[in-house]
Design goal:
Distance between the termini: 80 Å
Structural class: mainly alpha
Number of domains: 3
Strand content: 5-15%
Strand order of the largest sheet: 1-2-3-4
Helix content: 40-55%
Largest sheet: 4 strands, parallel
Order of helices and strands: HHHEHHEHEHHEH
Shape: globular
């Protein structure tokens, strides 16, 4: 009888352990790709603290970009330089730690799949495992990375009056950008330009609303990116 009771206790204990393990291994709704996006978003938002929500709006430059900037300028980055960048009071290691804590939402200038994978791996160690949003300025090709294809500026593309050609260029640029690890680009620029004193006319498709709309649609259809207005 004692042996039988002991066996029952062991079986009950194992059952409780298995139940607990299964319960702990249940995937949160927001990580379930079979659920509707709206349901997943609502579930994720309900689990986020205010600090974590604010953190998702924090954007940093790529650690490798920072290292290159510091090598280039030897630590003295011009204050009016918006192409290069560094954070004098923030170490690279602390940036990696912030990613692992889920305290950074996005990065700019991640140029290689190796760095993209490294950062995303760190993000997966955070409490909520929210992937990083990696962005790059690619208004006429992935020009920040060596070996990529550069296309004419948007104003020049528009002068072709050929949306199908612009669409093809956008497709090729999107392929190269995704190969770098980024999924967010700041293109197309659908401003209707009327003032020649503006310094970014070259990034627009010109002053005609119809032409701008056609070229913008051709570009966005491929890249799936947000308009920059």
């Amino acid at each position: 009888m004692k042996k039988r009771n002991s066996l029952i206790l062991i079986l009950l204990f194992n059952a409780l352990c298995n139940h607990s393990a299964n319960k702990n291994n249940l995937k949160p709704i927001y990580l379930d790709v079979t659920k509707p996006v709206e349901v997943r978003v609502a579930d994720l938002m309900s689990k986020m603290t205010l600090e974590e929500k604010v953190a998702q709006m924090c954007q940093y430059l790529s650690p490798e970009h920072i290292k290159e900037t510091e090598r280039k300028f030897k630590g003295f980055v011009p204050s009016n330089n918006d192409t290069n960048g560094a954070y004098p009071t923030v170490s690279i290691d602390s940036i990696y730690q912030l990613v692992q804590l889920g305290m950074i939402g996005s990065f700019l200038h991640v140029l290689t799949p190796e760095e993209s994978n490294q950062l995303q791996s760190l993000a997966q160690k955070s409490r909520l495992k929210i992937p990083l949003l990696l962005g790059i300025d690619a208004i006429h090709g992935a020009g920040y990375s060596n070996g990529t294809t550069i296309y004419p500026t948007a104003i020049t593309q528009a002068s072709s009056f050929m949306p199908e050609l612009v669409q093809k260029a956008a497709q090729q640029a999107a392929t190269e950008i995704r190969a770098m690890g980024s999924a967010w680009t700041f293109t197309p620029n659908v401003d209707v330009c009327r003032d020649p004193r503006w310094g970014r006319i070259g990034e627009t498709f010109g002053e005609d609303p119809y032409l701008v709309s056609r070229m913008g649609i051709a570009t966005k259809r491929i890249t799936g990116c947000k308009f920059r207005i």
